[in-house]
Amino acid sequence: MEFKDYYKVMGVPRDATEAQIKQAYRKLARKYHPDVSKEKDAEARFKEVGEAYEVLKSPEKRAAYDQLGSGPRPGEQFRPPPDWGAGFEFSGPGPGAGSGFADHSDFFEALFGAAGAARRGRRGIDPGRGEDTHAKVMLDLDAALKGGSRTFTLRIPEIDATGHIISKERTLYVQIPKGILPGQSIRLAGQGGRPPGEGTPGDLYIEVEFEPHPLYRLDGRDLYLELPVAPWEAALGATVKTPTPTGTVDLKIPAGAHAGSKLRLKARGIPCSTPGDFYVVLQIALPAADDERAKAAYRAMATAMPFNPRASLGV
Amino acid sequence: MPLPDAEPLSGEIVEETIVLSVTDLSRMMSVEERHIVELVEEGVLSVLQIDASEWRFSGAALRRARIALSLERDLGVNLPGVALALDLLEELERLRRERETARR
Q1: What angle do CA A78, A82, A84 make, to 5 degrees?
Q2: Distance between the two ends of chain A, CA-based, in angstroms?
Q3: How far apart are CA B78 and CA B76, in angstroms?
């Protein structure tokens, strides 16, 4: 098991005061909060910081943790000492770190067990019905365009027979509704938390984010593709092969097109009752002048066309 | 892993098909109804028809409420701060999209 240096995670010295620790936590939590942050690995960092704070803010847990020293040398495996935890009492719930999901490292669970894990209080909405739960998943653009089924693995906190919280992996096979957009949620009725004893399970809401697509960029329901064309295709007009989500099409480039010209293919964006459009943005690609014939062709162009591309700059 | 021939779970897109009441939102978020009312009073959530006998929300309120409550809980932000953060996040999102468009 990997030793976690909670002081290092928080960026505070080992003798930091409670106030310093709280300050460091707030700062890091704002930086890595998954709903706010665009940092890479924000969610993982946020959980790590939440876990570190859960330990360091509690005088009992911090004192117990401090007894471990600064851990094994890098790369060495960590095992809790046999007398671990003797003489300490861990009480009270911790913070609801993580967005409603208790999800601790193995290191944390080995030291503090699930007893240290916190759970948001369920404030008696309907005791006969399980809690509604939330998860976020990454989706490919294709699923939104064409629909289809996808498999997701979620970590779901569950209460075991002894009342402890354990984090379980759960695999879901889900039909993706065609036309879903990033930030929207799918409701899966009856897939949420189970109430103790008899009762109706709650619903599970999965909020989708999209993986960036190698070719297409999404804006609302519209899709954008950058299409490179040769200078003569743009100048003279041409019919060129263009990838679209529904397959390759022949696209007519009008004569006199320029870099940045936008061509619209109606209703080939994300489907809906008013579907999005598919925009092709032209880019002029220049052939390299890497042999004598190519150089001669460029020279011939220069002679044939007196052209000042900087005329609008007044030079 | 699911069996290849297993029937996939199917659900609906909350934002498009569902109209929510205060009770729905409070259940979905596991908070008291009073808390949802506070989110409305602070302008974090907007109701579809303010003069209706009972408040109704569009499905888009789900994401806003989820983010608002997680900012409150995880960052200790108070409600006016949450409202401000959400507005700024939306603005940021719009600017990022514009920059992305301009860059291409």
Answers
A1: 80
A2: 67
A3: 6
Query: Measured over all CA atoms, what is the biggest interatomic distance in chain B, rounded to whole angstroms?
Result: 50
pTM for the full predicted model: 0.72
Residues of chain A scoring pLDDT < 70? 71-76, 82-103, 113-126, 157-166
Q: In angstroms, how far apart are the furthest CA atoms of chain A? A: 92
Domain that holds residue A42: 6-116
Whether B102 and chain A come into contact, CB under 8 Å, resolves to no
Flag whether residue A122 sits within 8 Å of chain B, measured between CB atoms.
yes
A48-93 tens-digit pLDDT: 999 999 899 988 889 888 888 776 666 667 777 766 665 565 544 3
Cα distances from A227 to residues A142, A222, A246, in angstroms, run 20, 16, 16
| Residues within 8 A of B (CB atoms), A 125-154 only | 125-126, 129, 131-132, 134, 149, 151
Place of tokens 């671990």: A84
Residues A244 and A263 both lie in one domain: yes
CB A285 within 8 A of CB A228: yes
H helices of A199-238, in order, are 231-236
Its CATH architecture, for the domain B14-103, is Orthogonal Bundle (1.10)
pLDDT tens digits, residue range B20-52? 999 999 999 989 999 999 999 998 998 987 777
The domain boundary, picked from A90, A116, A142, lies at A116
> Would A125 be classed as within a structural domain?
no
What angle, 0 to 180 degrees and rounded to 10, lies between the N-to-C axes of helices B22-29 and B33-41? 110
Does residue A294 sit within a domain? Answer: yes
| A122 inside domain | no
CA distance B70 to B85: 12
